[in-house]
Specification:
The protein is an all-beta fold. It has no helices and 11 strands.
Length: 114
């Protein structure tokens, strides 16, 4: 059973940076693509970034050039480095993967405000 635990959220000023982490338990992490989603208040959950088992990445247009997804298979962890944060990046950020169904972490709140 795969479990995902996010950390690293918080309050940051516009233009600032945060790095989110997602620790995965269970076996087979290196064989799974990993995703970061976010959900702002009153909006639908949206895909922010993905990383394949081979390290290929994909980003939503809204974060391209500002966010970087990476993974450390030795630590069973996926990261989301977020730079040049803006108020519209405020959301709960979720780590996710597919293992017999879509698996979600509990989410971590990111608030960008002065």
């Amino acid at each position: 059973q795969v479990q995902l635990v996010e950390s690293g959220g918080g309050l940051v000023q516009p233009g600032g940076s945060l790095r989110l982490s997602c620790a995965a338990s269970g076996s087979g992490f290196s064989f799974r693509a990993m995703d970061w989603y976010r959900q702002a208040l009153g909006k639908e959950r949206e895909l922010v970034a993905s990383i394949t088992t081979r390290g290929s990445t994909m980003y939503a247009d809204s974060v391209k050039g500002r966010f970087t997804i990476s993974r450390d298979n030795a630590k069973n962890t996926v990261y989301l480095q977020m730079n040049s944060l803006a108020p519209e990046d405020t959301a709960v950020y979720y780590c996710s993967t597919f293992s017999g169904g879509r698996i979600w972490g509990q989410g971590t709140q990111v608030t960008v405000s002065s």
